[in-house]
Design goal:
- The chain has about 280 residues and is an alpha/beta fold.
- The chain folds into two domains: about 100 residues, no CATH class; about 140 residues, Nucleotidyltransferase, domain 5.
- About 35% of the residues lie in helices and about 25% in strands.
- The chain has eleven helices and nine strands.
- The strands form three sheets. A five-stranded mixed sheet has the order 7-6-3-8-9.
- Strand 1 and strand 2 form a beta hairpin.
- Helix 4 crosses helix 5, helix 4 packs across helix 6 and helix 8 packs parallel to helix 10.
- It is globular, with a radius of gyration of 24 Å.
- About 20% of the residues are buried.
């Protein structure tokens, strides 16, 4: 039944309240949210094809000053997967275009050909939003938990690389008015999890899990253990760890072994063949 105050269904209020408080009916989820209702606001949401639609939803913020600056969020839109005033399909397309092309300017041109006219700043905002969603999936990905890996061997691998990261310098600009910058060497850490069939060949029916970080090597091992904890590993599952001879990797391989054996799986480690051929 609609309420007399707003005319909105009461069940929608309850759903938004659960989203704000994190309370889904379980014991211990009674923590009060700092967000408060700050009225209804219009949102021009961009859909595929460049069509914009005005959607009215409740706006929540922590206090009045932040609400006046537009700093808050719309839980009603979040329930439908709308983020940064972009539909889920549009957000996905923008993020894929930015990742596939060389720069946000190239992505902007490719999106314009599809009728989506967005600025470089909005593309960057969309990429950050997708990045935050992807980080949440590192520990709460339902597709990983439901993979059918019975009778398959799991192969996990970690490797590092070298990359230059551009960082702007403070101080005066160049005679041409350009900002000075430095390009220090950084080491990205990457992980790969793939699956082998009963013949030892890569199972193409299950997509591999790929991830990486620019942080310390401890972070990449934490990510790997989180993924392994989500996989449906049983006593019949064998996990093979492959890496080169870097000391920082083999000093932490016991973390992977503990994560596998905690779920009852079997564990083995193997030194990379091409690295072994060097010596």
């Amino acid at each position: 039944m609609p309420t007399a105050r707003t005319g909105r269904p009461r069940c929608r209020r309850t759903t938004q309240k659960k989203l704000l408080t994190g309370n889904s009916g379980s014991v211990g989820g009674t923590e009060k949210s700092p967000f408060k209702i700050k009225g209804w606001r219009d949102n021009n949401v961009l859909f595929l094809g460049g069509n914009e639609m005005k959607i009215v939803s409740r706006f929540f913020a922590t206090h009045k000053n932040r609400a006046a600056k537009g700093k808050g969020f719309h839980p009603g839109l979040a329930l439908f997967g709308i983020s940064e005033r972009l539909s889920p399909a549009t957000l996905d397309l923008i993020a894929k275009s930015a990742a596939a092309l060389g720069s946000t300017r190239d992505a902007q041109g490719a999106l314009a050909d599809q009728g989506i006219n967005v600025s470089s700043a909005r593309i960057s905002t969309a990429v950050r939003a997708v990045t935050l969603q992807a980080k949440c999936l590192r520990t709460h990905d339902p597709t990983v938990r439901t993979l059918e890996i019975q009778g398959r061997k799991i192969v996990v691998s970690i490797d590092g690389g070298r990359i230059r990261i551009r960082k702007n310098k403070k101080g005066p600009k160049t005679p041409k008015g350009r900002t000075r910058y430095s390009t220090e060497w950084r080491e990205p850490k990457l992980l790969c999890i793939y699956f082998l069939d009963e013949n030892g060949n890569v199972d193409r029916s299950i997509p591999p899990i790929l991830d990486g970080t620019m942080q310390h090597v401890d972070e990449i091992f934490k990510m790997l253990c989180d993924y392994l904890s989500m996989l449906p590993i049983t006593s019949e599952t064998e996990v093979l760890f492959i890496a080169d001879g870097a000391d920082c990797l083999w000093k932490r391989v016991h973390l992977v072994e503990n994560a596998v054996r905690a779920k009852g799986g079997r564990f083995s480690a193997l030194l990379d063949y091409y690295f072994d051929c060097i010596f």
